[in-house]
Amino acid sequence: MVKVKPSRFFGIKTTAGRELDVALIIENRIHAFQKSLEESNSGEEELLARKPLDIRAIIIPPGSKGWIYIEAANLSSIYRVIQDIKYIKRTSPIRVDKEEIMKLIKPTPVIEMINVGDIVEIVKGPFRNMKAQVMDVDRNKNIVTLSILEAQFNVPITVPADYVKPVKRAGGV
Amino acid sequence: MPIRGKPFKACRRCKALVDKNAEVCPYCGSRDLSDDWEGVVIVIDPEKSEVARELGITKPGRYAVKVS
Fold it and tell me: What is the CATH number of domain B8-67?
């Protein structure tokens, strides 16, 4: 049975706003390299010298500005694919923990962080940028009932939990 | 994310990123595509990738992290 080398994660600094461009260039290079290996008619010695790239995934977390992350078995594969990319600012990748990456790509759902009485900011929809107090939380339907603090009358509104961002806990934390 | 607008649409069902002009997701056949997505995971080797395993991705390709 072939033993699979464990994954390691590395962060690469890019020009802000060019994260996707860098990721697509790296993806193209990996595919081109794999294709050239398959089509190569060269001798066995040359094939051995051209070690296959062991890059497993390229990650751009939501809201990431100026950073992309690569999951690979070794650092040498990363150096081979990032060389001469115009939008890479720092050529030495930084080691990142797997847990940090998972936190970025699998964030805790907003509904799990909200309780009755909390103050939230509405980030989407017609009430955007307004602050409101949570009156009810329906975790099954993923909706919250809010009372807008700036409104003169207390009119409860119901919005999806993704539309709000927690600002202050009911206890004042 | 790119400044010049998003070059892909995301499938709401399988989260795959597809061409902006596509009407059907080539991975799952869904027509429910969205322009409102965030974050990208490009899976090269789904068998060895720990991120792919965590996200339940089994095919190589480009995927969005969050689709609304």
Answer: 2.20.28.90
Domain boundary assignment for chain B: 8-67
- When scoring A2, A14, A54, A59 by the number of chain B Cβ atoms within 10 A, the one with the most, hence best to mutate, is A59
Report yes or no: A18 at the B interface, CB cutoff 8 Å.
yes
Q: Cα distance from B41 to chain A (closest Cα, Å)?
A: 5
H or E, element range at A8: strand A8-13
Contact B39 A57 (CB under 8 A): no
ipTM greater than cut 0.85: yes
pLDDT digits (tens, 9 = 90+) for A37-46: 777 665 555 5
Q: What is this structure's pTM? A: 0.75
Short-list B49, B35, B8, CA closest to A20: B8
In tens, the pLDDT along A4-16 reads 788 999 999 999 9
What's the burial of A32, exposed, middle or buried (CB within 10 Å: 0-12/13-18/19+)? exposed
